[in-house]
Description:
Layout: E1 3-7, H1 33-41, E2 44-51, H2 62-78, E3 85-89, H3 108-117, E4 125-128, H4 131-140, E5 143-147, E6 168-170, H5 174-187
Parallel strand pairs: 1-2, 1-4, 2-3, 4-5, 5-6
Helix pairs in contact: 1-5
The protein binds magnesium ion and zinc ion (ZN).
Amino acid sequence: xxxxxxxxxxxxxxxxxxxxxxxxxxxxxxxxxxxxxxxxxxxxxxxxxxxxxxxxxxxxxxxxxxxxxxxxxxxxxxxxxxxxxxxxxxxxxxxxxxxxxxxxxxxxxxxxxxxxxxxxxxxxxxxxxxxxxxxxxxxxxxxxxxxxxxxxxxxxxxxxxxxxxxxxxxxxxxxxxxxxxxxxxxxx
Length: 188
Ligand SMILES: [Mg+2]
Ligand SMILES: [Zn+2]
């Protein structure tokens, strides 16, 4: 069984441009490269899990989205980082939409990735910029880190709800390696 980092995309790995699929506007945060490279070297699979309701809203097609994902893969590859999987939820969140099991805060994408890529969820981490990412990770039994770059998400009332409470909060990716490495020594 493998261990993994489940990574939100928008606002976590790349700058959040709502509903963007233009590869020219896929811009990685520069602080992600070193931590991801190091954690990958330490045996973590890197798996993107992303809500993409723009498909349900017909803002873009799955093919257009794939082009944006290819761009992300390419930029990471240039930095020596290989994504082991990309999972996305194409469904919407409006009342008229069919309720799915994969849209975060639900844990469906994490369960699917765990089954397909032989991931031990208990040894894995969910990393994201909003509390819905944290909730998905918690529901799947992962440890969670909120990367709260703007320091706004941590002020939300629902963070007091155990469902949404991250194990750790960091302002950026630099704090991440230390948290995960120290935790590993503690548990194993
Ligand atoms: Mg996000
Ligand atoms: Zn879904």
